[in-house]
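Hi there,

I know you've been waiting on this one. I reran it after we fixed the sequence typo, so this is the corrected version. Both the input and the resulting structure follow.
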Amino acid sequence: MKLVKKKRVQEVVELNITAFLNLMVILVPFLLITAVFSRITILELNLPPKDAKPEQQQKIKLQLELVIRPDSFEIRDATLGRIKYLERQQDQTNWQVFSDVLIEIKSRFPEEDAITLLLDPKVNYKTLIQVMDHVRSADVIQFTEVETVELFPNISIGDAPAKIAETESQKNSDTNSRGASS
């Protein structure tokens, strides 16, 4: 018997990678755009040496705070205490006196540009915006021109402390009046 060999013709199948290449063309730029590149930041700390004595002639650093209550403004330094107390009505505020005090503080500490606004929960939003406008800059009359002076543009906001001093003084006056009446 004769063996007949059939020659099989095999077709070479090419891979169709055009769809894959289209996907890569879109994904690579997208991944490059959305990738977060790491940044190295260095924070330089100047620590005093172990045997260093504290500097006695340190420059005074002002930490200006403005406590805003519905009936008053209290301008103070965080470390030294009250600088100026200004009475006000709910709808009426003497902005000129307020600005004059801030201009005087700025003239004494010209390098200072930060202030912290401490708000009482009862203070309305309109008052907050007005205070922020007057704290950032003020108009000063120079001879015949009005000049806008930058005061404290870096503003931080926080909650006002409770009125502890007033309640303690009221308790003391109540105690003193009881002792005097006995």
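Quick highlight: The CA atoms of residues 170 and 176 lie 10 Å apart.

Best,
R. S.
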